Amino acid sequence: MNKPEVGVPYKFEVSGEELGKVLFYYGLISDVNEVEQKIICPFHEDYNPSMIVNLHDGKFFCFGCGESGNAYDFVEKAEHKKGNKGLKVLKKFFEILKSERVEKLKVNTKAKTKKQSEELYNIAYDYYYGLSRVDWKSSDLEEVEEAKAYMLKRGFTASTLNKCGAKVTFNKSYAIIFPMLDNGTFRGWVCRTTVKEIEQKRKYLYNGGFLRRNTLVGNYAGCQFVFVVEGYMDRLKFVQYGVENVVAILGWKMSKEQEKKLRDAKVVYVISALDNDTCGRKGTEYLKTIFDNVIRWQYLKGVKDCGEADKKTFDKMYNKTMQLLKEKMSNGKSTHKRTR
Q1: In the CATH hierarchy, which fold is given to the domain comprising 112-210?
Q2: What is the pLDDT of residues 260-278, one digit of tens each?
Q3: Residue 222 and residue 265: Cα distance in Å, rounded?
């Protein structure tokens, strides 16, 4: 923590040690040796962990509600919900750090080494490619039939499952697994639970070491325009209906690394098909601040995301969106100057 100087306004620049202690104090983490963690966000109704915690950087960020900051920011937001402000927050912050519960706590803030990341990637690669290939059209294995029944109920076909390389894990909790390919390059895997009780707590399970911010799931190389969606299933529905130039950012807000990937690929038009809800709209507005040519996917009333759309509904939304794209292209406003 930086030291205060007389006559100079105090700016809280705290480290990951303080963040680890604060989160431990509030009971949000139990392991202060794990540098990168994903936890339930306390600032919105979060059922699936959507807050990323980095004890090396001393920062937190929630993909669900957008809250972010350091240890002091966390305490300020937590105490604000209780009606505490100003000096009361400051007092609470120091009370936490001096409390018997955390004062002598040893927090690991060392960044993961490249070797560790490579090892985790290799483990993920071996796990996915070590599983048997599945022909979703002809297989009569019980595990395949159960997973296929779930996907068919959600509107996905056996052909689509074959095309994306879906497999079964033989794990009842997370029975179906998908490879996450970034322009054809394997970046990791994601499992989807088919159990309703588990779904209420955590729908998706990612491989250890997977970094969402460094991955754009989908195809965008050589594309003048791409569709941007939130989840893997949203992208899968686009693919099922014949649209290949679509990327999933695995959240509502695009990261700087994902943005750079699109810029390096010379993508000119970005079509935001982020969910039709508050976060999706916030994500769209954010895209408009970093790209010059952003078009909003034309959702029909009552449709929350593309993953739930049937063919007829999807085609209506697609045709309306493509008409807007054609108009924008014909107006000659395709600039690509904005940088960060």
Answers
A1: DNA primase DNAg catalytic core, N-terminal domain (3.90.980)
A2: 999 999 999 999 999 999 9
A3: 6
